[in-house]
Amino acid sequence: MRHSAVGIDIGGTKLLMYARIHGDDDPLIRRVTTGPDATQDEIGTAIAKFLTENDLAPAAVGIAVPGLVENGRVAVCDVLPALNGWPGPTGLGVPHLLVNDIRAALAREAEGLHSASTLVVMLSGTAIGSACLHRGRVVRGSRGWAGEVGSMPVPTAHGIKRLDELAGGAAIVRSTGLRPDQVHAALAADDAGVRDIVNAAGESFGLAIATLVNILNPDALHTAGGTLDYPGYWTTALATARAHTLPELWNACSVARVHNPALVVAQGALRLAEAAAAKEDWIAQYV
User: Fold this and answer.
1) 225: which residues sit within 8 A by CB, 6+ positions away?
2) Quick one: pLDDT at residue 63?
């Protein structure tokens, strides 16, 4: 058996499994397609297979999910409804830790952060989410669910919509009627209709960035998520955020994409799992 640390990122379109093996320089990474019909058993089986086929022996497995987590179970997961009520996989043979995916990203980005800093992390994947760390403490809210910016109501010409319905990857797929790879192809072909849809989604995400910077006055706001890879989305979001944030607050905040966006959630889940195995107290605020 190979001693290792393992982090899992369960998303609306993919399951990313990441292992850091002691003595190896390069991480082990596997991706499996998910989707809204993915079941608890399918995801649990994929994780167990990743461990056994690669002879991994982690002290614990960190599992990040795109939904609200409470008391070690998935309370609500709109992106993958079958995960509602899930306590995590059984039969792994090692302890596991369930955490919200944006909280996992926050744990990764907070590593090495100055204790007096305020950090916001925002993800734009299938849906939108955020998390905040202030002076070394996670901003949790009364039940630990603070940060559900994707449910923020936004006035539109067609009535009140949730931010998820305007800025998330699922919203772009729904509005264009295309798969993500087809959206990329249409943008590469300079399809004006698709470009307008992507830019409008980026504008909505930018307004959400401006809202959080204006309210929270963070030192840094880091973004990640596959939707940011659509050409035009991030540039529109950044310009919109700058235009709608008070200049003093904008100038006090570093707004940027994370260094390794594809892996940030899995790496954060791994960091939390290692800390849990070492019985470090600080992780309690993340889960």
Assistant:
1) 122, 123, 124, 125, 169, 261
2) 97
Is the domain of 237 the same as that of 138? yes
Distances (CA, A) of 13 to 75, 110, 278, 280: 20, 26, 32, 32
Q: Do 97 and 110 sit in the same domain of this protein?
A: no
Backbone angles phi, psi at 49, to 5 degrees: -65, -40
List helix spans (H) across the chain. Answer: 40-53, 101-110, 163-167, 169-176, 180-188, 192-216, 233-243, 247-251, 264-277
Q: Which amino acid is at 215?
A: I
Distance of CA 216 to the CA centre of its chain: 19
Cα-based angle 7, 216, 78 (whole degrees, multiple of 5): 45
Q: Are residues 146 and 187 located together in one domain of the fold?
A: yes
pTM over 0.85: yes
Write out pLDDT tens, residues 156-172.
Answer: 999 999 999 999 999 99
Enclosing domain of residue 62: 2-101+262-286
> Which residues make Cβ contacts (< 8 Å) with residue 185, sequence separation at least 6?
none
User: At residue 115, what are phi and psi to the nearest 5 degrees?
Assistant: -65, -20
Looking up tokens 């499996």 gives 32
Query: Are 155 and 236 in the same domain?
Result: yes
In the 8-state DSSP scheme, what is residue 153? E
Q: How far is the C-alpha of 184 from the C-alpha of 228, rounded, in Å?
A: 12
Alpha-carbon span 105 to 122, nearest angstrom: 9
pLDDT in tens, 91-146: 898 999 999 999 999 999 999 888 889 999 999 999 999 999 999 999 999 998 99
Judged against a pLDDT cut of 90, whether residue 243 lies above it is answered with yes
d(CA 85, CA 280): 26
CATH number at residue 267: 3.30.420.40
